[in-house]
Specification:
The complex is a heterodimer of chains A (about 230) and B (about 220). With about 230 residues, chain A is of the alpha/beta class. Chain A contains 7 helices and 11 strands. Chain B has one domain (about 1-215): MetI-like fold, CATH 1.10.3720. Classes of the chains: A alpha/beta (about 230), B mainly alpha (about 220).
């Protein structure tokens, strides 16, 4: 599903990611652990093309997001990149919902822009997700009217609108209390059960224990443990 | 007394066309243009952003009165161009250039204030840059900048009185003529009240727009 090979990234002279390789299968839940500043978030950002890697390759399904050609990083063509972006979703730590749009409008925006689904299909998909994530009565609410947990679920729904095959979470438990934490584990397991590969970046060890099928520990930009 | 108003009222109505005309045309052209200038000012291309920066510096760094005079009287002295603006053209060009610079800086601040996370979320969702700007960034920027834009809009009403330097009769000029004819101060009080009424209406209108943006936080 996802294959990362020899990924390296430096900011100036600081090597943040050093020769990272791993792969993830359909429906697998993988946690990426490590102290802050060890490159976890950078890794996530490389996976989502928010950061340009220096070396290595990332392959999603059978297409390269980027790879090294003659020692130079070469990204996929614009068209392929557009396709690949839809394969991989990201739930930000601060959710980054669009504050001026209702939950429903947040969900509709990307599929409407990408023009791949009819309005009917968009609405159907949104209703399904909102129902599963217990947000059906919040669809006309604005993000500021939602609790932290509800905002997170809205962000998950938004990321799922395009049916990604990989979904990344950046510190999903940081804004949650005990109760909503139980809820997010269940949601993530349900998503994995649908065959979505889940990548979770977190320093929350208890959460890792609870949910991870596999854990990758980053330290100083390298993988120290992968089990 | 009646004679004063017999002269003042028709002249004020004439002057109103200039005052309101300069005000509206400047806004209609400057506001959209300033968003483009703000984007150019923020361009990654160093030359583009530098040139825009110099333009803004000149417009904000010299009096509007001087700009009016320069564009009307001074422009055709520049070699090669050999072109002169008419009175009304000069007024419009000067006001638009000046206000676009101020508005552009307000928009730049407003765009910078948007959380980078909004752009990243749009990128991850596969939205194009243009679409992100129009649908995600701009609506939030408009909310942010409304109070500052409102301030400038009110200033613009009063700045329109500067057109007297090119001999164009706005409401202040009308008051001055009548005052000189009848040696009375009443016309000035009269136009003062007119400015206050225009500002009151505008304040109301601007508050309404601000409230329209209050549907979210």
């Amino acid at each position: 599903m996802l294959k990362v090979e020899n990924l390296s990234k430096a900011f100036g002279k600081t090597l943040v990611l050093n020769n990272i390789s791993f792969d993830i299968k359909n429906g697998e839940i993988v946690c990426i652990k490590g102290k802050s500043g060890e490159g976890k978030t950078t890794l996530l950002r490389c996976l989502n093309s928010l950061e340009v890697a220096d070396k290595g390759s990332i392959r999603i399904k059978d297409k390269y997001l980027f790879r090294e050609v003659n020692g130079k990083i070469q990204y996929a063509s614009k068209e392929d990149l557009k396709e690949l972006r839809q394969e991989i979703g990201l739930v930000f730590q601060s959710f980054n919902l669009f504050p001026h749009m209702t939950v429903k409008e947040n969900l509709y925006l990307a599929p409407k822009f990408l023009n791949k689904m009819s309005q009917k299909e968009i609405e159907k998909r949104a209703n399904e997700l909102l129902l599963n994530l217990e947000l059906e009565d919040k669809k006309d609410s604005y993000p500021y009217q939602l609790s932290g947990g509800q905002r997170q679920r809205a962000a998950i729904a938004r990321a799922c609108m395009l049916n990604p095959s990989i979904l990344c979470f950046d510190e999903p438990t940081s804004a949650l209390d005990e109760e909503t934490r139980g809820q997010i584990s269940k949601i993530i397991r349900d998503l994995a059960a649908q065959g979505i590969a889940i990548i979770i970046v977190t320093h929350d060890n208890a959460f890792v224990e609870e949910i991870a099928q596999r854990t990758i520990t980053l330290s100083k930009g390298s993988i120290s443990i992968n089990y | 007394m009646m004679k004063v108003f017999d002269m003042l009222i028709p002249m004020t109505i004439e002057g109103m066309r200039i005052t309101i005309g300069v005000f509206l045309l400047t806004l209609i052209i400057s506001l959209p243009l300033s968003i483009i200038i703000a984007k150019l000012r923020m361009s990654k291309n160093k030359i583009v952003s530098k040139v825009t920066g110099i333009y803004i510096y000149i417009m904000r760094g010299t009096p509007l009165l001087l700009q009016l005079m320069f564009i009307f009287f001074g422009f055709h002295y520049i070699p090669v161009i050999g072109f002169a603006f008419g009175r009304y053209q000069a007024i419009l060009v000067a006001f638009v250039l000046n206000y676009t610079a101020y508005f552009a800086e307000i928009f730049r601040g407003g765009i910078n204030a948007i959380d980078i996370g909004q752009i990243e979320a749009s990128t991850v969702l596969g939205l194009s840059k243009r679409f992100t700007f129009m649908k995600v960034i701009l609506p939030q920027v408009l909310k942010n900048v409304m109070p500052s834009i409102g301030n400038e809009v009110i200033t613009l009403v009063k700045d329109t009185s500067l057109v007297y330097i090119l001999g164009v009769a706005d409401i202040l000029k009308a008051a001055k003529s009548v005052s000189n004819t009848y040696s009375t101060f009443i016309p000035y009080i009269f136009v003062g009240i007119i400015y206050l009424i225009i500002t009151a209406v505008l304040t109301r209108f601007l508050n309404n727009i601000e409230n329209k943006f209050n549907y979210y936080r």
